[in-house]
Amino acid sequence: MGLFDKVSDALSSGDSSGSDEENESVETGGVFDVPEWAVKDRVNVEKRTGIVYEHYDVTEEQARTIAQKLKEELESTEGYSQRSVRSPLEDELDIDDELLETIVWTEMASIEMLDRVNTYLDQETGGEVYKISGPDDDRTHPVTEEAIEEIEDRGGAVPMKELAEILLEKAEKYEGEGGTPERMEHWVPHERFRFSIVRHVDF
Question: By three-state DSSP, how is residue 181 classified?
Fold first, then answer.
């Protein structure tokens, strides 16, 4: 099974799916409340529990608590933020604050990215190309930085399968420096990623 087959599997497995700071998360209110259909069944607690338990130094019970909180907040019609997910967990779980922040940040970004990619793939009619958009600062991971550069070298946008392969290649290259190629089926090339995938449109 190739990378894109694995990614497609992850997209259709019930946990459909980066955030940087709290204000980059989805926070809404009033007339901008999220419609229920847009967030319904967004997080599969069983699957996300397994992911968190496998990839972080937490107990299975802690992983389940985190997954349930992710579901509660990311399926809220009132919006959410990293803080709204993390703060209650800080009081409830005996987990190092930095580890908890990494888990919440990374898993939220994974769910959001899976949502976005799944939506793009559902809407494809043929020939669509995509690029990576994200901050360029001293916290930009080499995986992201080099993937953006390679996509630029290939014309500025590439098919989704090619984009996934570029991210996997960069994640493998930097595996000893935070790259997570084993998590590309969840669209996580490295922890705390901050980029988005956007469809390229010619005007």
Answer: helix
Instruction: Identify whether the C-beta of residue 67 lies closer than 8 Å to the C-beta of residue 49.
Output: yes
* 87 alpha-carbon distance from chain centroid: 20
Residue 25 has pLDDT above 90, yes or no: no
- pLDDT, the chain, mean: 85
Angle between helices 45-55 and 97-123 (to 10 degrees): 130
Residue 158 CB partners (closer than 8 Å, separation 6+)? 129, 130, 131, 151, 166
Interatomic CA distance for residues 169 and 104, integer angstroms: 25
User: Quick one: three-class SS letters along 7-50?
Assistant: HHHHHCCCCCCCCCCHHHCCECCHHHCCCHHHHCCCCCHHHHHH
| Cβ(111)–Cβ(70) below 8 Å | yes
| Tens of pLDDT, residues 139-196 | 999 999 999 999 999 999 999 999 999 999 999 999 999 999 999 999 999 999 999 9
- Count Cβ atoms below 10 Å from residue 160 Cβ, excluding itself: 19
